[in-house]
């Protein structure tokens, strides 16, 4: 493996320095290199792994570009030398459990979510300055590399777990979330399980969804996309997030999975909501956003997640 990595990274020195064991989806190990520093290498032997890692790498790049929350810098994605699967090399970070930086993570996540709307405001100001002929090209705001994104989706397919998300761009969030997020999961459940109750509840729930968003104006926010407690931590100096499955969506979506498995303290939420207060109807939409993850877990890990998926659908339909 060291020799293979030397070739791919154009390094003269590569030495394994530890195995993180990886997560539920991929294996991971760290290596010292002479030209890329210490790197963390994720390995996955599934045939779809290349697409999954390309999505993760593009997500890390997009988040890095916002300069809001620390993520590992991606280095390279390439096919596994065995012929099936893929490898993803990124900056190694010394990640410990998230403890003392909960509040900072809440604030930084909110800043990530507000980044695109700040670009919109800035763009509006630039346009009006150009309109009045008062634009100053020496202004450092002209150096901003990102521009405002006015729709929902992402340029690249990203995978929540190993399932690809349909990130095709869409102007309307309710349509995007209903069809491309929930609909895609329910189509898979129909294909694999043909579950009659899921099908019936879904046909009722679809009609209730638009009402849950009445009066809400949603600006696309760049999301981490898989922000459960296992994908956050901290270094000695700052909070860290990793393993993203990004897309532009409703900021509230991010808190769906954060709330499912724990790992985030009151300090995290209060810092977050200081910058992005809960909008009216938040609690109900929070359940709607958790539904995606229950369905995604049903599709990944089987019928153990059927009960919670159906119960949340029943509640949402009943309360509408
Ligand atoms: N850049 C990194 N540097 C050092 N260690 C890392 C890095 N990225 C991840 N790790 C470690 O490896 C473990 C697994 O990583 P990751 O969550 O990306 O794996 P996965 O199999 O894709 O994910 P999951 O279990 O969330 O589905 C993490 O819990 C973390 O301890």
Enumerate the strands of the largest sheet in spatial order, edge to edge or round the barrel.
1-2-3-5-4
How confident is the prediction overall: mean pLDDT? 92
What series of H and E elements makes up the topology? HEEEHEEHEEHHEEEEHHHH
End-to-end separation in angstroms reads 56 Å
Number of helices: 9
Described by strand count, sense and barrel closure, the largest sheet is: 5 strands, antiparallel
Estimate what percentage of residues fall within beta strands.
15-25%
* Structural class by secondary-structure content: alpha+beta
Number of strands: 11
- The low-pLDDT segments are 137-144
Describe this structure in words.
Keywords: ATP-binding, Kinase, Nucleotide-binding, Transferase. Belongs to the fructosamine kinase family. Pfam families: Fructosamin_kin (PF03881). Its EC number is 2.7.1.172. Residues 117-141 are annotated as: Disordered. Helix content is 44%, strand content 15%. The radius of gyration is 21 Å and the shape is globular. Residues 137-144 have low confidence and may be disordered. It has a five-stranded antiparallel sheet. Strands 6-7 form a two-stranded antiparallel sheet. It has helices at 2-9, 49-66, 102-131, 173-193, 196-208, 251-258, 266-275, 282-301, 306-318, and strands at residues 14-19, 27-33, 38-44, 74-79, 86-91, 159-160, 163-164, 221-223, 232-234, 239-241, 247-249. α4 (173-193) packs parallel to α8. β9 (232-234) and β10 form a beta hairpin. The chain has 320 residues and is of the alpha+beta class. The protein starts with a helix and ends with a helix. The chain contains nine helices and eleven strands. It binds adenosine-5'-triphosphate.
């Amino acid at each position: 493996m060291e020799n293979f990595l030397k070739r791919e990274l154009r390094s003269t020195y590569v030495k394994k320095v530890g195995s993180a064991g990886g997560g539920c989806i991929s294996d991971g190990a760290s290596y010292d290199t002479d030209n890329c520093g210490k790197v963390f290498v994720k390995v996955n032997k599934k045939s779809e792994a290349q697409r999954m890692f390309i999505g993760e790498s593009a997500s890390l790049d997009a988040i890095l570009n916002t300069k809001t929350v620390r993520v590992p810098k991606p280095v390279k994605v390439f096919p596994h030398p065995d012929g099936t699967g893929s490898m993803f090399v990124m900056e190694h970070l010394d990640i410990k459990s998230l403890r003392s930086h909960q509040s900072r993570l809440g604030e930084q996540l909110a800043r990530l979510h507000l980044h695109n709307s700040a670009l919109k405001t800035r763009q509006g100001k630039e346009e009006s300055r150009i309109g009045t002929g008062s634009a100053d090209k020496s202004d450092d705001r002209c150096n901003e590399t990102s521009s405002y994104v006015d729709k929902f989706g992402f340029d690249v397919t990203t995978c929540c777990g190993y399932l690809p998300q349909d990130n095709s761009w869409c102007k309307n969030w309710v349509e995007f979330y209903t069809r491309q997020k929930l609909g895609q999961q329910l189509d898979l459940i129909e294909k694999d399980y043909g579950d009659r109750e899921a099908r019936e509840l879904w046909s009722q729930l679809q009609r209730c969804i638009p009402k849950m968003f009445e009066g809400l104006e949603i600006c696309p926010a760049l999301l981490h996309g898989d922000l459960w407690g296992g994908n956050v931590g901290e270094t000695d100096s700052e909070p860290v997030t990793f393993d993203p499955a990004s897309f532009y969506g409703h900021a509230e979506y991010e808190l769906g999975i954060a709330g499912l498995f724990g790992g985030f303290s009151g300090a995290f939420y209060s810092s977050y909501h200081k910058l992005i207060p809960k909008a009216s109807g938040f609690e109900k939409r929070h359940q709607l956003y958790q539904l995606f993850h229950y369905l995604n877990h049903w599709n990944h890990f089987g019928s153990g997640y059927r009960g919670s998926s159906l119960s949340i659908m029943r509640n949402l339909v009943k309360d509408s």
